[in-house]
Fold Putative DNA glycosylase.
Amino acid sequence: MPELPEVQALVDFLAARLLGDEPRVVTGVELASIAVLKTYAPPPDALVGLPVSSVRRHGKFLDLECEGVHLVFHLARAGWLRWSDTLPEKPVRPGKSPLALRVRFDDGSGFDLTEAGTKKSLAVYVVEDPGAVPRVASLGPDPLADDFTLEAFTDLLTRKRAQIKGVLRDQGVIAGIGNAYSDEILHVAKLSPFTLTTSLDEETIARLYAAMRETLTGAVDAASGRPAAQLKDAKRAGMRVHGRTGEACPECGDVVREVSFADSSLQYCATCQTGGHPLADRRMSRLLK
């Protein structure tokens, strides 16, 4: 799933191609999957003929504004944006392909929104105000915003009793962090993913805050300037523990371990994060009974 650093890189990638002294004008919005469109007014055609005014990010949501009409989309777990300097002239047709939506611009360029797999979660909204999208309206603060200070972070943690990994991933608490970067942040902060927020002292909270800002800023910098097609591989290559089960921890050399859930998993280093004690993996425990 694209998280804050990848979505920000996509924002920068699109802004570089669509904005400027003569912004690109939308010439077509074609749906290949009606299921991805979550709004009905304004219709997608309301974007046609309008120049691009801005490209922004709200957490993991990307917002393409065209003179007051916003195309807002969330790529979910298996969605992606594919850019083309020259799109095929043939209109898209509904079908079973990964293609969900195509946006065309006046120079022949454009992008496709695609989604692999059978579980479809990619969501597209055409609205006059991004705040009309319920999941955007309920987002917590951006972790890289200037006004998201250590004091603000501390206040959030002290008001919510829960496991720290779940808090970092809760979009209503902090916007933009998902499964991968929460693993990375907790590894840098040397904290177990199951640590309760109520057990964190001031020093530990400060260490976690620094780890969050450092990890996300580093990932944004690493993704900056990369073509959209390279962002997935760049994300994987930059991971310290996430997705690296069985490999050596880059910090201490211990093996990276995993805890599996029904539809996801987390990775961590026992030496760095849990005092050398492996965490219980409920799925593996059931298999061993």
